[in-house]
Design a protein that fits this description.
single chain; 153 residues; mainly alpha; 4 helices; elongated; binds protoporphyrin IX containing FE; electron transfer activity; iron; Cyt_b561_bac/Ni-Hgenase
């Protein structure tokens, strides 16, 4: 189903998910820093726990987003490729926190490497998505970015 614009709720959810991902990247950087220091003490667990909680929040926001999308639809993507990238984003936004929870519970090397792979793919696709949006806005000048910004009225 296609609607003509993104609703306020869809835009808020989009930026909430983006914000949670930015905080996750920040936590990841902190974790890597703590790993490098060797004797990380209790700090390591705090960032890992926060990352787990944010992962659960991310999953909840994404599932809500998917259900709204199914209910009221979304505008046609700017290009067919952008549409495939959106599907890949949803897929990885669900698989990343789920694989993180499995890694957290099982604590096996295999589950951790699956989670690392999901995170890597997610960030690669997010970069592609941002590139596409900026290209559409500033090179193709199709006004793509404005679709996800608050309406000016
Ligand atoms: C940082 C993590 C981000 C994630 C996970 C993400 C995810 C998504 C997803 C899944 C959609 C598809 C919405 C739908 O039709 O159902 C979308 C659309 C969109 N996003 Fe993002 N996004 C992110 C960051 C950004 C950023 C930084 C920008 C601005 C530079 C942006 C601008 C847009 C725009 C304009 C659309 C609508 C594109 C269109 O309709 O073709 N996003 N985003």
């Amino acid at each position: 189903m296609a609607s003509s614009v993104y609703t306020k709720a869809q835009k808020r959810l989009h930026w909430a998910v983006a914000l949670v991902l930015v905080v996750q990247v920040f936590l990841e950087v902190c974790r890597l820093g703590l790993f490098r220091q060797g004797e990380a003490g209790g700090g390591l667990d705090v960032t890992a726990t926060l990352s787990f909680v944010l992962g659960a929040l991310l999953l909840a926001l994404v599932l809500l987003r998917v259900s709204i999308r199914r209910e009221i639809g979304v505008p046609m993507p700017a290009t067919p490729l952008a549409g495939y990238v959106h599907y890949a984003l949803y897929f990885l936004l669900i698989l990343s926190p789920v694989s993180g929870a499995v890694a957290w519970i099982t604590e096996t090397e295999r589950s951790e490497s699956v989670h690392d792979m999901m995170k890597f793919l997610l960030f690669a696709v997010v970069f592609l998505h941002i590139f596409q949006v900026l290209w559409g806005q500033f090179v193709a000048k199709d006004g793509t970015l404005r679709r996800m910004l608050p309406a000016r009225d």
